[in-house]
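Hey, can you fold this one?
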Amino acid sequence: MNSTIQAPYYPIIYVRGFAATMSEIDETTADPYMGFNRGSSVLRQDHQRKPVSFIFESPLLRLIKDHNYIDAFQGGGYLDDPGRVPARSVWVFRYYERASSLLGNGERVSMEQFALDLRRFILQVRDATCADDPARKADFKVHLVAHSMGGLVSRCYLQNICRHGVPAGYDGEGLELTEGAASPHYVDKLFTYGTPHNGIDVLGINVPDLGPIDKFHISNFAQKRMREYLNISKKSVAVNSLDGALDPDKCFCFIGSDYKDYDAFFKLSKQVTGPASDGLVMMANAYVDNASRAVSYRSHSGHFGLVNSEAGYQNLRRFLFGSLRVTAMLHVKQVDLPPGVQAKYDNKNEVRGSYYFDTVTRVRAGPNYVLNERRYEHSSALLRTYDELIKDQKSVYLFTGYLTEMARNASDYALMFSIDVGVRVPLFEVNRKFWFDEHFEGFMYQEQVTLAIRDKTIRYGLSLKDGIGNAPRQAEITKDKGKRRIHIALGTAANARPGFQGQLELIVDDWC
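Sure. Predicted structure:
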């Protein structure tokens, strides 16, 4: 069996999320794949409005079918023939086993110990794929794919264990860690689903660190405790920072916005977190500083969860194996107020209003392939105040996504995707009172931009002028340090009140 290590097709290690009670821990360890094998079924309508099921098989099966990976479980256990296991293999890090009453001693385990166990597991994967071959070992890397707390276990491994060695009181024998110095972490990329990178908030307050009376280890999500097990270097460094342990470009954060469909250990979680969350983790806490991210209308877990979603898988495969990275920014040049509000503003009255920006990014490779979705009706739209847009000239970050060669069109060899942009009229406040005159709730501007990226050109089309899915216009490209940039003018008619004028900026560079 060929076990050549070749980028970007490294072994993939799945790291599951939090289990609170002992019954949940036991249930977790009873599942060999700890959820990574679970898919979902939804209904779609055909042209006659008849319901037709749409099946998402699971991330595990899709990686096997789409990218020729194999399941590392064979014959009742992990593959362990040294040097004979292919690099294209999917592994499940079963870190709750030692805490389970079924397979372990039933005692709670610290985040530091979980991270040490992850180190041991990564070395186990290295032995299986490389044996003692120095060339293979030199090329060996892994992709970590983590759900919820699994992302924090991964960060503890990267930011603490591999940078500072074995913590006092722990056994580090055989882990190839240098005390007080950095050791190779072997991680090429980190992908997280719904990880609370900045902790978990309840009613707007970070969960407390309860110390020795914390039966369920809820303090793992308290910023004070997070700073300890992540071993963050300075007080000035944010909790959601990788702190130099891994390039943020090598991290992708997939974020949920459906807070209504999450049936969690905390039965009131969706009430205490509310909108702008996945039912447990606030959207604002679910990403790593400076890392790429995308949002989906999915809950933290369950049948409608982030992990078992087509959107999650499409972002995962493109991040791991894609060929191009695309970052989209919206630069607002002008927003024109309604005439009555403008008169109040010109007369130095206090005018306040926040604009909602909807954005949806799709690829044409197949049905339901939405990479990023932030909508007003999902309570996930991007928000900017009038002053931020006009006085501060604050740009609106839309998304970072990845495109794969597998989706190229055979006839024109273009990588294509579309971006919806919608700007919603705010409910203005004048002198701290709502201004109901001249107000219609809805969008002041909506457009779908189609992009076709080729080796030397980038073409685009505007749905209102060119139709949906067409890209007849050639964009002017500027190049900067290997990146291609284009700007596309968007906006209402010049005399529209309220009106909007702006530019969509796309930054395209090679990936992997």
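The mean pLDDT is 89. Let me know if you want another pass with a different chain boundary.
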